[in-house]
Specification:
It is built from two helices and four strands. By secondary structure, the protein is an alpha+beta fold. The longest helix has 11 residues.
């Protein structure tokens, strides 16, 4: 049985794991801590595909016809 790559689906926005350096720059720019970021579960199907760890910062880029591109950040949590 063939597996479906959910990251290729048109409704799934682009997710990418930031390096520690990139994450620190974003947190500094936003003047927040990792704990203040919205959370995404390690059990999320896209996070599983990215094979990342708890504490990683994920950059999510959504494209919209009306708003252009919107960028969101999430921190990976266990629960």
């Amino acid at each position: 049985m063939a597996r479906i790559d959910i990251t290729k689906h048109e409704l799934v926005p682009k997710h990418e794991v930031l390096s520690e350096e990139e994450a620190n720059k974003i947190l500094e720019k936003l003047n927040i801590t990792k704990g203040q970021l919205p959370k995404i579960l390690i059990t999320d199907p896209v996070v599983k595909k990215l094979k990342t760890d708890v504490g990683a910062v994920i950059k999510i880029s959504r494209t919209s016809r009306t708003a252009g591109t919107s960028t969101f950040y999430r921190v990976v949590v266990a629960e």
